[in-house]
Amino acid sequence: MNIVSLNSQNRAQVDKFIKDEWGGPMIVTLGNLYDSSFLPGFIALDGGQIAGAVLYRFDGDECEIAAIYSLVQNRGIGTALTNSVLGVAKERGCRRLWLCTTNDNTHAIRFYQKFGFALKAVHIGSFETVRRLKEGLPARGIDSIPIEHEFEFEIILRPDGVGA
Predict the structure, then answer these.
(1) Do 40 and 89 touch, CB atoms closer than 8 A?
(2) Domain ranges in the chain?
(3) For residue 19, which of 37, 50, 86, 135 sits 20 to 30 Å off, Cα-Cα?
(4) 120 near 152, Cβ under 8 Å?
(5) CATH class of 2-156
(6) pLDDT digit of tens for each residue in the chain (164 aa)?
């Protein structure tokens, strides 16, 4: 497996996945709407094929993982992609790396905790806002669990909040 920066040659495949699987390119996190097709990222290549991708964005001294996926589970793809963004966030001197996932995504919740993310907040009922900003989202998700809340996870990179 090889991790490389997202570029114009592989962007279309990542954008297609996000459109097909998540109704992109628009994505919503904590009530904020973003066009994922403009976000930087990394892809995981396995045998020359895209096996996963991560998109991120900066907001001041914070770095958000806006989207991440792995087409093959339990092969280290998500870990390698997350580590790539973690490295960029550290290089930039970010105070924290964070992300949100929905309450139905139990596999991701386990992954983030095992990786070292701490649960910062559970935004109860926040998916009502998400649905207002982005139509056509399902009421139920993985294992038919009702999608209602966003779980916010973070890794603090600079506990004091100052300096790099």
Answers:
(1) no
(2) 2-156
(3) 86
(4) yes
(5) alpha beta
(6) 899 999 988 999 999 999 988 888 998 889 889 999 999 999 999 998 999 999 999 999 999 999 999 998 888 999 999 999 999 999 999 999 999 999 999 999 999 999 999 999 999 988 888 888 877 777 777 888 888 999 999 999 987 655 54
